[in-house]
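User: Hi! I'm a student and our assignment asks us to look at how structure tokens line up with a sequence. Could you show me two examples?

Assistant: Happy to help. In each example below, the sequence comes first and the structure tokens follow. Example one:
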Amino acid sequence: MRKPFLSHLGHSVLLALSLLLLAGCNKTSDETGSETVEAPSEEPTLELLTSENVVAKLEEFGKNNPDSLAVIGTRHGEIKVRLYKETPLHRANFVRLAKAGFYDQGEFYRVVKGFAIQGGDSDDRTMKQGAYKIPQEFNPKYIHKRGALAMARYGDDRNPEKESSSHNFYIVTGEPVDKEQLLAFEQKHGIDYTPEQEKIYLSVGGEPGLDTEYTVFGEVVEGMDVVEKIEQEPVDASEWPRQVVKHTIKVVNE
């Protein structure tokens, strides 16, 4: 079973310290140490990465696979995301898992209205990816605006370097914040938002409390209406959708 996440605290100053975006901890989690069901021999397999080889392997894969667009398919429709080349390890990892079919065994398994939808994992997955995390790639150009694509991670107590999960991702659905809230986040995280970034947070929305805490590596370019439909899914007390929202992820040409 997946372990529960810490509670979501809305737009409080403590948001980034206690939020959903810990890596999904089901039986395929990259730190539980438990084993998954063995995949059938005909199923595609991935080379299992480790903390020792992850950077070299992703750098090599990224050079040979410069793709930067992917489509997330769900029963509500498709979401097209653009992956940032300035976060090369995260881009390469997402493309690698998508091309291998790993994400086709996943689902959106946590939904917090007005905050984010989180996916990438599933209790039914058979494909393994290895026990590794991705070094953080914070970039001041990329903020947690509404529609941002970012990678989940374990909390600071067990992950002080803020390394990302190997596979759990989320899409931000945050609402507009006010000027006072934004200034508080700037002071807390030592950020100086550009006028354009400030305008986005004040008018469009997002989750500034997550900036410098989680790596943003892409954004939704089409299908935010689909994200909103997933956001409206009825959930249980643990914020799991009552009806499974499976997803597939395909890399597409520019």
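Example two works the same way, sequence first and then tokens:
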Amino acid sequence: MKHSRPLRGIALMAALFAFNNHAQAGVAYNVTGWDATGTGGADGGAPANWIGGSAPGYAGKLNAMWFAELAGNTATETVSSSAARTAGADANYALAVGPRAWSANASGTLGKGHGSDFGLIQLTGLSNLTITVAADTALGSAMTPGFSLFQGWDTGTTAVRVADYQNNQDNPLGTQGLSFIDSAATTIAGGSASFTFNNLSAGNYTLFVGGNSTAGIGFEGKYTVSLAASPVPVPGAVWLFGSALIGLVKIGRGKRNI
């Protein structure tokens, strides 16, 4: 029995799609200059000493504390102090931020770079990405989390961490190549902030994490980040087109057999 080339092509695409969705990646941690209080300003310094997963191909000036690669659009990863310790970090290693690192003013837009953490994310395919930043209550944290997601990684040489920044504007802290997408925060001490970013293309993203000070009150503390990619729904018109294509292939085969 002969099979048409279009049908073999469709089968191959389906196989590649399935493989992509089940690929495995991981999280790497930069243990250079870590500070358990989140206020030292040296976390994720250079030269980077990455442990855990594969190191990123990152050459930016902005300090990068961790790197999470999500392979496929059904991948999930968790970033935490405990995971870093399990991967070989110091027994006291901690991912921690300052109480006003993400927001220190009434409008909720002014961050403090020296107390913030910066994570690198890489998506291997078009995805919806849900990010949840939470106080690491297992380690006694009572922080009030806030975060901003930017498309791109720093590509410049002028980033300065110990400075104020606007958490809703492009290229904060003198970075280059960062485009603001959106942000989320909570006002609950020891709580969590979550947001789903839809239709993110494959590529690099940077997450700014810090404490969300409300009415001048905030808590420094340790945090965790949960990353969950999900497929972008395929429009119904695409499935109709695929069905029509298969129908045309069958008609063509029928004509050749007459």
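Here is something you could point out in your write-up. Residues 33 and 43 are 5 Å apart (CA to CA).
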